Protein backbone atom coordinates (compact mmCIF):
# COMPACT_ATOMS: atom_id res chain seq x y z
CA UNK A 1 0.00 0.00 0.00
CA UNK A 2 1.46 3.34 -1.04
CA UNK A 3 -0.08 6.45 0.44
CA UNK A 4 -0.22 9.42 -1.91
CA UNK A 5 -1.06 12.79 -0.31
CA UNK A 6 -3.72 14.51 -2.37
CA UNK A 7 -3.08 18.16 -1.69
CA UNK A 8 -0.24 20.66 -1.60
CA UNK A 9 -1.71 21.89 1.68
CA UNK A 10 -1.19 18.46 3.26
CA UNK A 11 2.38 18.25 1.94
CA UNK A 12 3.22 21.74 3.16
CA UNK A 13 1.79 21.01 6.62
CA UNK A 14 3.53 17.64 7.04
CA UNK A 15 6.71 18.10 4.98
CA UNK A 16 9.10 18.28 7.92
CA UNK A 17 8.06 14.89 9.30
CA UNK A 18 8.32 13.03 5.98
CA UNK A 19 11.22 11.17 4.41
CA UNK A 20 10.50 10.51 0.76
CA UNK A 21 12.22 8.12 -1.66
CA UNK A 22 11.82 9.01 -5.34
CA UNK A 23 12.81 6.20 -7.70
CA UNK A 24 14.09 7.62 -10.99
CA UNK A 25 15.42 11.04 -12.06
CA UNK A 26 13.75 11.12 -15.48
CA UNK A 27 10.80 13.30 -16.47
CA UNK A 28 8.45 11.95 -13.77
CA UNK A 29 11.01 11.90 -10.96
CA UNK A 30 12.32 15.37 -11.76
CA UNK A 31 8.78 16.77 -11.91
CA UNK A 32 8.18 15.25 -8.48
CA UNK A 33 11.35 16.93 -7.14
CA UNK A 34 10.29 20.28 -8.65
CA UNK A 35 6.93 20.15 -6.89
CA UNK A 36 8.56 19.22 -3.57
CA UNK A 37 11.09 22.07 -4.05
CA UNK A 38 8.27 24.59 -4.48
CA UNK A 39 6.77 23.76 -1.08
CA UNK A 40 7.41 26.26 1.72
CA UNK A 41 9.27 23.51 3.58
CA UNK A 42 10.68 20.68 1.48
CA UNK A 43 10.55 17.18 2.99
CA UNK A 44 13.70 15.07 3.35
CA UNK A 45 13.93 13.63 -0.18
CA UNK A 46 16.34 11.10 -1.67
CA UNK A 47 16.06 10.35 -5.39
CA UNK A 48 17.79 7.21 -6.69
CA UNK A 49 18.81 7.17 -10.37
CA UNK A 50 20.47 4.15 -11.98
CA UNK A 51 22.14 6.23 -14.71
CA UNK A 52 25.03 8.60 -14.02
CA UNK A 53 22.97 11.66 -14.93
CA UNK A 54 19.38 12.86 -14.78
CA UNK A 55 17.05 12.77 -17.77
CA UNK A 56 15.85 9.18 -17.95
CA UNK A 57 14.52 8.25 -21.38
CA UNK A 58 16.11 11.33 -22.96
CA UNK A 59 19.61 9.97 -22.18
CA UNK A 60 19.67 6.94 -24.45
CA UNK A 61 22.90 6.32 -26.33
CA UNK A 62 23.63 7.68 -29.81
CA UNK A 63 22.47 4.33 -31.26
CA UNK A 64 18.90 5.08 -30.24
CA UNK A 65 19.28 8.72 -31.25
CA UNK A 66 19.72 8.15 -35.01
CA UNK A 67 17.95 6.04 -37.59
CA UNK A 68 19.49 3.65 -40.16
CA UNK A 69 20.27 6.64 -42.40
CA UNK A 70 22.11 8.58 -39.70
CA UNK A 71 19.28 11.08 -39.21
CA UNK A 72 18.40 12.23 -35.71
CA UNK A 73 15.43 10.37 -34.31
CA UNK A 74 12.65 12.41 -32.85
CA UNK A 75 10.55 11.35 -29.93
CA UNK A 76 7.25 9.67 -30.55
CA UNK A 77 5.75 12.14 -28.10
CA UNK A 78 4.46 15.42 -29.53
CA UNK A 79 5.66 18.57 -27.78
CA UNK A 80 2.06 19.33 -26.90
CA UNK A 81 2.09 16.24 -24.63
CA UNK A 82 5.49 16.77 -23.00
CA UNK A 83 5.40 20.55 -22.57
CA UNK A 84 4.85 21.71 -19.00
CA UNK A 85 2.17 24.31 -18.31
CA UNK A 86 4.47 26.24 -15.95
CA UNK A 87 7.43 26.22 -18.35
CA UNK A 88 6.63 26.26 -22.08
CA UNK A 89 8.90 25.70 -25.08
CA UNK A 90 8.14 29.31 -26.06
CA UNK A 91 9.34 30.55 -22.66
CA UNK A 92 12.50 28.42 -22.80
CA UNK A 93 13.63 29.03 -26.39
CA UNK A 94 12.05 32.45 -26.92
CA UNK A 95 10.31 31.25 -30.10
CA UNK A 96 8.36 28.31 -31.53
CA UNK A 97 10.59 25.25 -31.99
CA UNK A 98 9.12 24.56 -35.43
CA UNK A 99 8.20 20.89 -34.96
CA UNK A 100 5.68 18.89 -33.01
CA UNK A 101 8.23 16.11 -32.44
CA UNK A 102 11.35 17.59 -30.81
CA UNK A 103 14.68 15.81 -31.04
CA UNK A 104 16.37 14.39 -27.98
CA UNK A 105 18.82 17.32 -27.94
CA UNK A 106 15.98 19.87 -27.97
CA UNK A 107 14.21 18.02 -25.14
CA UNK A 108 17.38 17.82 -23.04
CA UNK A 109 18.01 21.54 -23.50
CA UNK A 110 14.38 22.30 -22.56
CA UNK A 111 14.54 20.13 -19.44
CA UNK A 112 18.15 20.56 -18.23
CA UNK A 113 19.28 23.80 -19.80
CA UNK A 114 22.94 24.17 -20.67
CA UNK A 115 24.50 21.81 -18.13
CA UNK A 116 27.99 23.17 -18.88
CA UNK A 117 27.02 26.40 -17.12
CA UNK A 118 26.83 26.87 -13.36
CA UNK A 119 23.46 26.14 -11.74
CA UNK A 120 22.41 29.80 -11.54
CA UNK A 121 23.12 30.32 -15.27
CA UNK A 122 21.16 27.30 -16.51
CA UNK A 123 17.74 27.93 -17.94
CA UNK A 124 16.00 24.53 -18.11
CA UNK A 125 12.80 23.45 -16.40
CA UNK A 126 14.69 21.19 -14.01
CA UNK A 127 17.20 23.87 -13.06
CA UNK A 128 16.00 27.46 -12.65
CA UNK A 129 12.30 26.58 -12.66
CA UNK A 130 12.67 24.67 -9.37
CA UNK A 131 14.22 27.56 -7.46
CA UNK A 132 16.98 25.33 -6.03
CA UNK A 133 19.58 22.88 -7.26
CA UNK A 134 17.72 19.57 -7.48
CA UNK A 135 20.86 17.53 -8.14
CA UNK A 136 21.71 17.68 -4.43
CA UNK A 137 18.79 15.30 -3.82
CA UNK A 138 19.81 12.72 -6.45
CA UNK A 139 22.01 9.71 -5.79
CA UNK A 140 23.33 8.65 -9.20
CA UNK A 141 24.42 5.20 -10.42
CA UNK A 142 22.26 3.62 -7.74
CA UNK A 143 19.52 1.16 -8.54
CA UNK A 144 16.63 0.30 -6.23
CA UNK A 145 16.53 -3.48 -5.73
CA UNK A 146 13.49 -3.75 -3.45
CA UNK A 147 10.84 -1.78 -1.62
CA UNK A 148 9.09 -3.39 1.34
CA UNK A 149 6.25 -1.73 3.26
CA UNK A 150 5.80 -2.64 6.92
CA UNK A 151 2.25 -1.94 8.03
CA UNK A 152 3.09 -2.00 11.74
CA UNK A 153 5.58 0.87 11.47
CA UNK A 154 4.02 2.42 8.33
CA UNK A 155 7.54 2.67 6.92
CA UNK A 156 9.14 1.56 3.67
CA UNK A 157 12.45 -0.29 3.66
CA UNK A 158 14.26 0.50 0.41
CA UNK A 159 17.25 -1.60 -0.63
CA UNK A 160 19.63 0.06 -3.08
CA UNK A 161 22.73 -1.06 -4.94
CA UNK A 162 25.52 1.42 -5.75
CA UNK A 163 26.55 0.36 -9.27
CA UNK A 164 29.99 1.99 -9.00
CA UNK A 165 31.10 0.24 -5.82
CA UNK A 166 28.73 -2.74 -5.63
CA UNK A 167 27.70 -1.73 -2.11
CA UNK A 168 24.16 -2.66 -1.05
CA UNK A 169 22.38 -0.80 1.73
CA UNK A 170 18.88 -0.27 3.10
CA UNK A 171 17.17 2.93 4.17
CA UNK A 172 13.84 3.77 5.80
CA UNK A 173 11.25 6.13 4.28
CA UNK A 174 7.74 7.27 5.14
CA UNK A 175 6.80 7.56 1.45
CA UNK A 176 7.95 6.14 -1.88
CA UNK A 177 7.30 7.66 -5.30
CA UNK A 178 7.91 5.22 -8.15
CA UNK A 179 8.86 7.44 -11.08
CA UNK A 180 10.85 5.09 -13.27
CA UNK A 181 9.58 4.88 -16.82
CA UNK A 182 12.04 2.45 -18.34
CA UNK A 183 12.54 -1.15 -17.33
CA UNK A 184 15.44 -2.84 -19.05
CA UNK A 185 14.01 -6.28 -18.36
CA UNK A 186 10.51 -7.59 -17.98
CA UNK A 187 9.11 -7.24 -14.49
CA UNK A 188 5.79 -8.71 -13.44
CA UNK A 189 4.14 -7.52 -10.27
CA UNK A 190 2.37 -10.15 -8.21
CA UNK A 191 -0.60 -8.54 -6.49
CA UNK A 192 -2.38 -11.82 -5.76
CA UNK A 193 0.28 -13.69 -3.79
Automatic annotation (TrEMBL):
Tagged with keyword Flavoprotein: yes
Domain of life from the UniProt record: Eukaryota
Cofactor(s) essential for the protein: FAD
First-tier enzyme category under EC: oxidoreductase
EC number of the protein: 1.-.-.-
Alphabetical keyword list: FAD, Flavoprotein, Monooxygenase, Oxidoreductase
InterPro entries documented for this protein: FAD/NAD-bd_sf, Flavin_mOase-like, FMO-like
Family per similarity comment: Belongs to the FMO family.
Listed name of the protein: Flavin-containing monooxygenase
Amino acid sequence: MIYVPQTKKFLAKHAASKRVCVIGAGPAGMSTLIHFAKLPEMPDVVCYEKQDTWGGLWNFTWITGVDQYGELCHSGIPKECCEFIDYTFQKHFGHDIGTSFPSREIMLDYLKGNVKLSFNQRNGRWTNNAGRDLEQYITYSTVVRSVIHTEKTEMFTVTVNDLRTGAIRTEQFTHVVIACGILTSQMLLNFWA
